[in-house]
Amino acid sequence: MNERPGESRESMVTRYFGEPIKRNEDPRLLTGRGTFVDDIRPPGLLHAAFLRSPFAHARILSIRTEKARALPGVVAVYTHADLPPALQEPLPKLIPHPALIHHKTQYALAPDKVRHVGEPIAVVIAENRYVAEDALELIEVEYDPLPPVVDLEQAIQPDAPLVHEDAGTNVCAHYTQRVGNVEEAFAKAAYVFTERFVIDRGTAAPMECRGVVAQWEPKMRQLTVWDSTQAPIPIRNGLARLFGLPQSSVRVIAPDIGGGFGPKIMMFYPEEVVVPFAAMQLERPVKWIEDRLENFVAMNQEREQIHEASIAVDKEGRILGVKTVFLYDAGAYIPYGLIVPIVASTTLPGPYKIPNYHCEFRAVFTNKTIVSPYRGAGRPHGVFVMERLMDRVARELNLDRAEVRRRNFIQPDEFPYDVGLIYQDNAPLIYDSGNYPACLEKALEMIGYDRWPSERERYRREGRYVGLGLACYVEGSGIGPYEGCRVTVEPSGKVYAATSVGTQGQGHFTSFAQIIADILSVPVEDVTITTGDSGAFSWGTGTFASRAAVVAGNAVALAAQAVREKALRVAATLLEARVEDLELRDGRVFVRGVPGRSLSLGEIAVAANPLRGTIPEEWEQPGLEATRYFAPPRGTFSNGVHAAILEVDIHTGMINILKYVVVHDCGRIINPMILDGQIRGGVAQGIGNAFYEKLVYDENGQLLTRTFMDYLLPTAMEVPEVEIAHVETPSPLNPLGVKGAGEAGTIPVPAVFASAIDDALAEFSVRITEMPLSPNRLLEIIRTARERSKEAKSPR
Amino acid sequence: MKPAPFQYTAPETVEESLVLLHTFREEGKPLAGGQSLVPLLNMRLARPSVLIDLNRVRELSYIHDEDATVSIGAMTRQRAVELSSLVREKLPLLAEAVRYIGHPQIRNRGTVGGSLAHADPAAELPVVTLVLGAQLVVRGLEGTRVLRPEEFFVSFLQTALAPEELLVEVRFPVHRTYGTAFLEVARRHGDYALVGVAAMVQMDGERCTEARLGFTGVGPVPVRLPEAEEAATGRPLDDSTLGEIARIVAARLDPHSDIHASATYRKEVAGILAGRALRLAAERFKQREGA
Amino acid sequence: MKRRAQTNASRRTPQARRSKQAKVSLPPLWTRKEIRLRVNGVEYTSTVDVRMTLVDFLRHELGLTGTHVGCEHGVCGACTILLDGQAVRSCLLFAVQADGAEITTVEGLGTPERLHPLQEAFRDHHALQCGFCTPGFLMSTLAFLRENPEPSDEQIREVLAGNLCRCTGYQGIIDAVRDAAQRLRSGYGA
Question: Which domain holds residue B193?
């Protein structure tokens, strides 16, 4: 099971798997020839603009659209009342959960009430976007503003305004998982430490905002939708259902996508159904491109959680129990269910043996933008809480931070390791493989941990406040249910593969091609991958949860393997040889020991699709083609350690990252260049989460950070060089031995920052318990700590 | 995010520009580099009836050396100032500060006059005019006015410019015998300052004989703090002097709070930056003397 | 281009006030205007709404969709182009302002078969993932390397800070620019 495909049977060497192959997609993207949704321009195209709620919470008393309709260039204006019944219902509930009692979902266009700023109320379809926006200003909406509930902790108070009156509460789910008996463990522990952790909101901010282009061909009854989604096939299925069309009449294409990071997967964003609706009504193609102001309020957000967490340890710092009770801000609706808080609570145990664990959360509605997974999706929260508690233990017990972690690691011989929880895929949380001590030791070596005490002293003598931070994490990835791939060798000998996942920059056009090129022994440039087109592949779920390389990647391998076997079978017939005597080399099948007798894959493909005669039974189907699915029983678990050295200017609160290292284990590596790119990009986003990026809402639920002037993405000046090393512990759960890597870079960064800042400011006894920080907040923390220590020192 | 409708006109001379401004007054809006105005137009936060594009008024783009004065035309690109060896030599404070404006891609379009007339209280150029004692030359059809920065900057995004007037030139006196420094704290490189300080000093050995300190980002207009300047004068710029200056700065400034920093933060950091800027300016003075 | 009489008098413009004006004749007021410009060496003449941004014009009127729109407020840099050789944000310019200008967009660099050395360096150093911000980075960098053929890392970071990338963490881009500087200096591929 564990061998690399291609290595197994014959002499064939793997030329591509594991190599830093340059990307197939780059030449087109580098020359402006990519095709993003906004680059789709069918003739007769109309443009949509959405009227969005300016209030966080209000009743809609009336909507008048006459003036807008009368504006020259306006083709149509639609409100809730204009929609067919299927689109007047709340949009589908994506991922139900027994604990999710009030599974409220968003509307295509708001009926009588709006629940967050940016919620769509009406849509204008016009000859161009400029006129469409002019018309938005002419729509008259009468609102009855209601008191909004913005603050997460206020939302659970009995007198809080209700986001959904019929629910009778803002708490839509209350869910607890337990391992062992935490109460007993805490009662007998040598020490128990408790801390409150606050993690605030952020947004994924892909450089490309969302977009939808829909085209309806009435004669063919064919709906084509270009959508910046991470999950085109489920969108296709859903649209077919909503519009009463057979699935074969709907094609959804996710073309080049300018970054996804999680929030581009949803079913549905209102615009994803309203734009196709308009195109069908008007029988003209319609385009909607989200602008950045819209993106800040209309694309899903993430991160807001408040944890009350405790850890119980013995005298040596061994963990006896951990407990966290937290609030999860769902925003105004909860289409995506409980994925994020479940991931947070199941990521928290990390690489440690925790015999007794209690995690309990309430998911809470507020009058803010909807929350759904954003890169990390609860994992940064779990890691932040756990790693902060580990640092606390080290500090209170006066132990070395690395040593505390060593004492609690799950050991390499203890896999598979059952954590005792149920993961987000409803399967038991069982770690498949890993070598946590090796990753930590490697990271310590890279960051210069042994030298650190003296380094730190040297900095302090220079009057500089420099700290070392470190954090360990385990990342659940590669969950099911399944993905698929169809591999076809064409008569030219070139290989085409269609997969079910979409791609948003992860390099699937290359990494999947590498897998196929090795198995079929062809040049990687001769393999063309199609992703994200429901017209090319019909079954699949999407790109999320760091799963594409694992689930789709293995489907790709299985399909390529099947094509290889088919090629050998067909060649055996044609060459009148036994399959065992054949070998596939450089795109040709040879009879061993008979150099003259060979056939190219192209020739075999032609022969496998005859115009006369018949197809032998053992060929199964015409052509050199195979479709395979991979459905893992449960997820695979990557892990890693990040460490950083960070300087704080205690007079300005500014920080400077002097060194950042990552040790990462995601099993077998398909393309180290692409993998390192994923990690570096993730670290940059993590740095944003730790110090720059914060969505600030005022008490009225207005978002104050609605531009890139106020919501601060790290630039090339803020992101340091990241040194990366890999440990490769293959996953036993899939043939390629791979694990997911998409989110690993992001997950532990806030925890590393906190750890480093604590260390830098140790003499002020600072304990960082919140994210993100800022220079302003850091000075406040330093100020408070100084006053505290002054009070402590002054005689009573 | 598309601008509301407007009419567009592109004068080619100052004279034409003034007539247009006079004609349309409040309904007209001069467009200089557009790096602040066009975002506001795109967001429909600014909605002029007529956009008067000054980018074809070539006569407003120049850097003139008049020995004791360097005159810069209002439509001179910030990037031209940054790359000017004349500015580097004679107005090192301006040369240093201009590099803090956005990014090269912004400075390629952004103009000196546009930044001053926009009067963002966190911008870099206004405080430089203040500390250097520049003169702002303002023209209308009725005539020319020469304003001091203290007169020109009125309040948050407000200047003494009448709707029919145009800022045409900034005249910077050349201070040959001073050391200068510009420092700012911004969330990211290129962002508007949370706090910025422009310092100019003359030294006699270790003793500071004259100091000027200007602050940006700490109120509706850039400010100088005479008390802090006096506290530096006649004394060595050591920890005790700078500590006292920091205290004066924190006490005298009355900055605002916003989502990026509190008033307390701005006061504290302004005091720290003032000290750092004075020290740096003094070092540069010494280097200059030594050279 | 010859000036036309004033067109499309605005409903909000007080005509009366203007007539008082003195000797200097007023330049015309436009709501639509003909413009002529060169883009990647090709001459275009087009009549545009004066409020149309240059990036919308390039993308939707000329079909040059390689230049991307990321924020429309001048921060992200995805729309960076060369205007008369200088890197500028095309979302902060109106198409009318480019009348008479020489513009280079990403389509004016290499082709997929024959990449420009800068593009090649980006590919070699994995300086792009989703590719959306990439054209803006290329154009910023192109102008920068013309002015600074031997940049320091600090200078590279400083100029790149004018463009936002959400995928790469910038390191590949920095490596690519450093390498491209070398390639261009040695006349490689030029």
Answer: 179-290
Q: Is A445 on the interface with C (CB under 8 A)?
A: no
- Cα-Cα-Cα-Cα dihedral of C53, C56, C58, C61, to 10°? -110
Mean pLDDT of chain A: 95
CATH code of the region A26-34+480-630: 3.30.365.10
Q: Which two tokens stand for residue B53?
A: 């594009």
With contact defined as 3+ CB pairs under 8 Å, the chains touching B are A, C
Domain with residue B227: its CATH number is 3.30.390.50
C153 touches chain A (CB under 8 A): no
Residue C52 lies in a domain: yes
pLDDT at residue B291 in the model: 63
Q: Is B190 in the A-facing interface, judged by CB distances under 8 Å? A: yes
- The whole-angstrom separation of Cα C5 and Cα C126 is 54
Q: Which of C108, C137, C153 is the last residue of a domain?
A: C108
Residue C25 lies in a domain: no
Please list every residue in chain B whose beta carbon sits closer than 8 Å to the beta carbon of residue C161. Answer: 103, 188-190
CATH top class, domain A409-477+636-792: alpha beta
Q: Give C155's contacts in chain B (Cβ within 8 Å).
A: none
* Residue C138 and residue C92 in one domain: no
How do residues C85-101 score in pLDDT, each as one tens digit? 999 999 999 999 999 99
Cα dist from C72 to B11, B39, C64, whole Å: 26, 7, 17
| A572-to-A6, A575, A770, B91 alpha-carbon distances in Å | 19, 5, 66, 83
Are A31 and C111 in contact (CB < 8 Å)?
A: yes
Residue pairs spanning A and C at CB distance below 8 A = 183
Number of independent structural domains in chain B: 3
Name which of C12, C88, C159 is nearest B49 (Cβ-Cβ).
Answer: C12
**If contacts are CB pairs under 8 Å, which of residues 102-121 in chain C contact chain A?**
105-107, 109-113, 115, 119
Assess whether B68 and B165 both reside in one domain.
yes
Residue C154 structure tokens = 């600090």
**Residue C147, domain extent:** 117-185
What distance lies between CA A436 and its chain's CA centroid? Answer: 23
Q: Is the Cβ of A707 closer than 8 Å to some Cβ of chain C?
A: yes
Partners of A256 on chain C (C-beta within 8 Å) are 130-132
pLDDT in tens, A48-78: 999 999 999 999 999 999 999 999 999 999 9
Tell me whether residue C71 is in a domain: yes
pLDDT of residue A502: 84
Of B1, B39, B187, which has the smallest distance from its Cβ to A692's Cβ?
Answer: B187
Residue B257 lies in a domain: yes
pLDDT tens-digit series, residues A356-386: 999 999 999 999 999 999 999 999 999 999 9
> Tell me, what's the pLDDT at A503?
87
Cα distances (angstroms) measured from residue A464 to each of A310, A396, A656: 33, 24, 11
Distances (CA, A) of B4 to A67, B1, B84, B286: 17, 9, 37, 54
Window C:15-54, CB contacts with B under 8 Å: 17-18, 21-22, 24, 26-31, 33, 50-51, 53
Q: How much of chain B is helix, strand and coil, in % rounded to 5? A: 40, 25, 30
pLDDT of residue C23: 62
C50 interfaces chain A, CB cutoff of 8 Å: no
Residue B267 covered by a domain: yes
